[in-house]
Amino acid sequence: MERVAFDHSPNNGFFKILSHRIDAYFIENKRSKKSNGLYLAKILFYVVVTISLYAAILSKVFGGWALAILFLLFGVSMTILLFTVAHDASHQAISKRPWINRLLSYVWNLGGISSYFWGLKHNIAHHTFTNIPGKDDDIDQSKLLRLNPNAKRRGFHRFQHLYAPFLYALLSINIVYFKDFKLLLQHQFGNKTIDRHPRKEIWILVATKLFFIGYMILIPKFVLNLTWLEILGYHLIMHMGIGLFIGFILVPVHVTGESTYRLPDWNGKVHYGWGEHQLEATVDFAANSYLVNWVTGGLNTHVIHHLYPGINHIHYYQLTRIIQETALEFNLPYRNYSLGKIFIEHLRFLKALGEEDNPTQNEQFNLTLS
Predict the structure, then answer these.
(1) Cβ–Cβ under 8 Å, residues 144 and 133
(2) Is the C-alpha dihedral spanning 121, 123, 125, 130 positive or negative?
(3) Structural contact between residues 322 and 305, judged by C-beta atoms closer than 8 angstroms
(4) Tell me, what's the pLDDT at 10?
(5) Pairing state of beta strands 284-285 and 336-337?
(6) Nearest to 31 by CA among 361, 349, 318, 343
(7) What backbone torsions phi and psi does residue 203 show, to the nearest 5 degrees?
(8) Other C-beta atoms within 10 Å of 66: how many?
(9) Per-residue pLDDT at 276 exceeds 80
(10) Phi, psi dihedrals of residue 264, rounded to the nearest 5°
């Protein structure tokens, strides 16, 4: 697809007014948009929990299902740590000093993920062109799942609402062991074209995978004297837990019956304001729950994250109220589902996408599918 740009002329001033109010919040409360003491305490908490769980795994005290549960808990704790540290760092949201964010973004690599390719796929493609088919890889991940009305509908998609959770369980394995290598062969990310990926990043990618295999498979195997079948089984259980955790946090916030998708015209123009589109393409869940906000690294308050990714997630809980009020003033939709309802609505929309060519209200897709 050619370069795509948003035509901001149709906007109604929502994003400008919202940005003014967000800035005023930080000025009036004398707060930085970056991290604070509570955020640092949160990092310390999850670092201690994650290291403690890994130490328990290697302690030789646990075996069987108890060890499997420890692997599962370690994986989820590590994932929360990635959301808390690496995700914010990749958006320059921890510190005003770029080198600190750059350094902390390598926490992705501790989880077996290339921070370089995460930045390209997530920051440049997904965040800029959210729910724009052909530009946002997150809604074009696999032919097994139809996540947008512009994707070709196949017969087996009628059952995707039934098998999607099983695919989500494999999501972490795919990201760590396959996705980065696939991205290595990709040269278009959003509007950015990269003819050749830096050799340094390729070596870092290889080292990342070897390091992850070393401390997650080899060290436990030999310290605990496990068979290959046992350690790979524990490893699979860990990844399945991570996959379900991130699958049901990251996918539904853009794929429900109320999520908006838009296509550019023949000149590559999306005739809508970027801020307004982000609001309509994204939904929140349990936005009033501080506990859910804490556990998900603020990703349950996903609207504020997409509108202002450079703001540290420790502030999202308070800022979401400003979005709610401003959207109401401008008669724009702000959606906040309960924790259970967002999963139901997501699976319901997957079912609709599997049964209908265009279950959305956007007539653009009727033209592309005809």
Answers:
(1) no
(2) positive
(3) no
(4) 60
(5) parallel
(6) 318
(7) -65, -40
(8) 10
(9) yes
(10) -75, 160
CB 308, CB 361: distance < 8 Å: no
What pLDDT is recorded for position 369?
Answer: 46
| Per-residue pLDDT at 370 | 40
Among residues 197, 136, 142, 129, the alpha carbon closest in space to that of 171 is found at: 142
As a whole number of angstroms, the distance between CA 252 and CA 281 comes to 11
In 3D space, the residue among 36, 40, 49 whose CA is nearest the CA of residue 80 turns out to be 49
Distance between CA atoms of 60 and 139, rounded to whole angstroms?
A: 43
Burial, 37: exposed, middle or buried (Cβ in 10 Å; 0-12, 13-18, 19+)? exposed
CA 204, CA 52: separation in Å to the nearest integer? 27
Identity of residue 306 = H
The pLDDT value given to residue 239: 98
Closest CA to 31 of 254, 368, 314: 314
Helix, strand and coil percent figures for the chain, each rounded to 5: 60, 5, 35
Full-prediction pTM beyond 0.70?
A: yes
Q: Which amino acid is at 103?
A: L
Bridge partners of residue 336, in order along the sequence:
284
Q: What is the pLDDT of residues 57-81, one digit of tens each?
A: 999 999 999 999 999 999 999 999 9
Distance CA 240, CA 253 (A): 20
Q: DSSP characters for 58-101?
A: TTSS--HHHHHHHHHHHHHHHHHHIIIIIHHHHTT-S-SSHHHH
Going by the DSSP 8-state scheme, the letter that residue 334 receives in this structure is -
Report yes or no: 79 and 246 within 8 Å, Cβ to Cβ.
Answer: yes
Distance CA 148, CA 132 (A): 9
8 A C-beta contact, residue 276 and residue 260: no
Tens-place pLDDT, residues 187-237 = 999 999 999 999 999 999 999 999 999 999 999 999 999 999 999 999 999
SS3 137: helix
φ/ψ (deg, to 5) at 284: -100, 165
H or E element: which one contains 164? Answer: helix 160-169
